[in-house]
Amino acid sequence: MAAQPIDRDVKPEWRDALVDLLFQLADDDLLVAFRGSEWLGLAPHVEEDVALSSLAQDEMGHAAMYFGLLESLGLGSRDDLAHLRPVAERRNAIMVELKNGPGTYLEQPHYDWAFTIARAFCYDVMESLRLERLKSSSYVPLRDVARKISGEEKYHLLHHQIWIRRMALDPDAKTRLQAAFHRVAQDAGDLGSTGAHTAILEESGLLPDASGLTRAWQDQVQEFLSLQGLSWTPVRETSTGRLGKHTKDLEDALDTLSEVYRSDPLARW
Amino acid sequence: MSDAISFDVYEVFVQLEPMSAHQHQFNVLASSPEMALELGYENFCRRTGAVSLWVVKRDAIHKWTQDNFSGKERLAKTYRTTEDYKYLKDKWRHYRENPMTQEGPRNGRTAD
Amino acid sequence: MEPTDSLQYQQFMERINRGDRIEAEDWMPDDYRQQLIRLISMHGISEIMGALPEKEWVPKAPTLFRKLAIMAKVQDEMGHGQLLIRVAEDLMAPLGKNREDLMEDLFTGRLKFHNVFHMATPTWADAGVIGWLVDGAAIITQGMSLSCSYGPYARALARIVEEEGFHIQHGESICMELAEGTPVQRQMLQESLERWWPALLMFFGPPEGNQLSTHQQKNLDYKIRSKTNEELRQKFLTKYVPRIRSLGLVIPDPTLSQDPVTKVWQYAQPDWTLFRQIVNNQGPRSQARLGLRQMSYQEGQWVRRVLAMTTPAAV
């Protein structure tokens, strides 16, 4: 049964769930874009460098749209929301906040290409499933955003699938990729979680079938990987990041991405 | 139909002047690249001339078509064009006529 | 090298003097090819190295809009590097060389990159000044090179120059916001200008005086370039000094002045000995940026190997 469309006024008992969901979406994309932007200029192949940046820009654009929805709900300016919220208020999944490699983007990055591809693929699959559901969200502004951005996500998935297929053909690359998927799985438990308000998200139609995300996502990841002769370590759903519990990597990321803005949030930049 | 005649299809690309790109014109039936060049020239350059002519056997072309793009439209990215910076022109004119001092604009910042 | 009195050479020079564009597969004298490889590989590698100083500010850009814009801007620089390296690779192919060799030459110091990309970028204002003034300087050089006799380079530049329009306005927009902003923001901008001024003058290379170098003379003869370093620098000053001053910024050169009649700018010469040190990888950030480039390049070796592998038809 399709939920009643909500144009603007959200029932008070649903509002917290909506805000929490929008923060999950915005924070996920912000961190994916941030990690992508750290690769700029450092990718293994010049043509790939350019392509990767397009994907990161898409994600940053999507984050800006989600923060815009929060702004229009009266939660503050989109830049304040993106730059000033403390770690405990962040709702992104753990997987997307993890560093690209042991170093920093400024010095000795030692970025891990296999990890980057494995993580991006896992995220793309989740995002496409989530967007499919959001395209029929009862909250009309969110539904409209989902319909707009889902086109770009299809390129992202395609891009990473091509990389995985290719890497799976080479024994050395395949070993690296398998190890990367194993690592990604260790921190992927909360990726399909929708946090503290899952029941309301379903009941209100804000995110239909919210509780089925993790399963659908694992099925799809597993199916694609097995076609390439790769295996997936099944994960059990947790809600860590969705409840504001994060790693040191996120703390460092927030320090970096808000360094200039925080120096004077009242100034115009 | 044992003696069916078969040709290859060659797509024809013409560059009209040295700074422009090669542009696809149309295609010809031919049995060799040499013949495709000659036929391509006579068929598609007879009014315009050319500075360069390419023929490519159709089956050497890999493509993305409508099916690959539909449902995957990219969003407008005005931040990466001059579109989002049009306001600058008025600002430059304003400060040319009313230069800032070392402390900044004389009468506060201009409207955007 | 072909004797300059050979028929082939004379016909080639006739084409050059007629204003023909030379294409990759056309016959060309060895030193024409060498001059092009020298110029275009340096230009290409400078774009690639030039991504690094600005890249430092990409994740830190203050707002979501600035984050998007600077990502796009630095991405374009990599894209320009891609175009130019492809042009250089096609020129090097008959010599059995490719982009791997370019990277090796960069790491061993045989291939130089532009002086400006050896400099430090300690504040957000540097991201603005690079877009506004460094790209402003670059577009003056590149605008000249649109008339280059080598077709593939000229066509690559046409694409590049078109995108630089956005880069400059992106930089102007950052600087304008700082100039109109708080005292701290204005101070940040003024200090950045002071930091970059000598590097901007150096960007065009040493003034020729009455003596053109052999390279310079060849490039002019072959119509690879059409203006001298000093002519380009004068153009830059004419365009940008009034704009810089209109923002109330102080150019750190009290002797800077324009002759009201001849319109020629007088300016304090930057330290050209320092310039030579900088382009020989002894600048403030030369070693750090080369190190970063080399590390990411070496660690990406296995990825390029997989990418270059010929595979059975994709599923």
Give a nutshell description of this structure:
The complex is a heterotrimer of chains A (269), B (112) and C (315). Chain B is of the alpha+beta class and 112 residues long.
What can you see in these coordinates?
Chain A is built from eleven helices and no strands. With 269 residues, chain A is an all-alpha fold. Chain A is globular and about 55 Å long. The termini of chain A are far apart. Chain B is of the alpha+beta class. Chain B has a domain at 8-60: Phenylacetic acid degradation B (Ubiquitin-like (UB roll)), CATH 3.10.20. Helix content of chain B is 24%, strand content 20%. Chain B has three helices and three strands, in the order ββαβαα. A three-stranded antiparallel beta sheet of chain B has the order 2-1-3, with helices on one face. Chain C has 315 residues and is mainly α. Chain C has one domain (7-308): Ferritin, core subunit, four-helix bundle (Ferritin), CATH 1.20.1260.10. A two-stranded antiparallel ribbon of chain C has the order 1-2. In chain C, strand 1 and strand 2 form a beta hairpin. The relative contact order of chain C is 0.11. Classes of the chains: A mainly alpha (269), B alpha+beta (112), C mainly alpha (315).
Considering the chains and any ligands shown, give keywords for the structure.
heterotrimer; B: 112 residues; alpha+beta; Ubiquitin-like (UB roll); three-stranded antiparallel sheet; 3 helices; 3 strands; C: 315 residues; mainly alpha; Ferritin; two-stranded antiparallel ribbon; 12 helices; 2 strands; globular
